[in-house]
Amino acid sequence: MPVDGAKSAPRARPCPICGKPPVEASKPFCSERCRDVDLNRWLSGSYAIPARESDEDDDMDQPK
């Protein structure tokens, strides 16, 4: 911890693909390669956002 009371810069999170430090041009990734790997995972369906089905969704499909 600095003695003069100055705050140190917050550490950037590591690249979510390989764990290396991020590069400004590809942030939050370390390279275009890791950025492309992540994009491919989204486009291929490897990543998915969980969803909950509710009874309200069923009611919207039926005409009243």
Description of the molecule:
By secondary structure, the protein is an all-alpha fold. It has a domain at 13-47: Erythroid Transcription Factor GATA-1, subunit A (Erythroid Transcription Factor GATA-1, Chain A, 2-Layer Sandwich). It has helices at residues 32-44, 55-61. The radius of gyration is 21 Å and the shape is elongated. The N and C termini lie far apart (66 Å). The model has no long low-confidence stretch (mean pLDDT 82).
Index terms:
64 residues, mainly alpha, Erythroid Transcription Factor GATA-1, Chain A, 2 helices, elongated, Znf_NHR/GATA, DNA topoisomerase type II (double strand cut, ATP-hydrolyzing) inhibitor activity, zinc ion binding
CATH C-level name of the domain at 13-47: Alpha Beta
Total count of strands: 0
Distance between the termini: 66 Å
- Give the DSSP E fraction (strand runs of 2 or more residues): under 5%
Give the uncertain stretches in residue-range form.
none
Summarize the structure.
The protein has 64 residues and is an all-alpha fold.
Please specify the SSE layout and strand pairing.
Layout: H1 32-44, H2 55-61
